[in-house]
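I'd like us to work through together how a protein chain folds, taking it slowly. To get us started, please write out a protein record for me. Label the sequence line and the structure token line clearly, so we can match residues to local backbone shapes. Once you have written the record down, we can walk along the chain together.
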Amino acid sequence: DVQLQASGGGTVQAGGSLRLSCVASGFTFGDSAIGWFRQAPGKGREGVSAIVHSDGSTYYKDSVQGRFTISSDNAKNTVYLEMNTLKPEDTAVYYCAADSPWLGGTYALGSIWYDYWGQGTLVTVSS
């Protein structure tokens, strides 16, 4: 069975940092793309960042570019999202999602391409 376990959320002050982790199992990690998505209260789900393991491509939402970094540890089947200089508008439930084999091309921030979803982890940034 496919499992995605997201963790690392918490409450931080604006300007602070958090690192989210997504541990994956049940599919071929090296053929996958894994994305981070978030949903703020009263808003729709949006793609934040993604990594395509076949070629190492990474993708970022414009508003997090330069502040967030996605990385992958293939030995641990784990993807990380390092979030720095956090802002109150980053407050949301963050989800990791996966698809393997990856068929979405460069549309890695599009949730429609992902078949597997983990539970969310809440990130709260106070002003």
User: Anything to note?
Assistant: The chain has a mean pLDDT of 97. The chain has no helices and eleven strands. The longest strand covers residues 18-25.
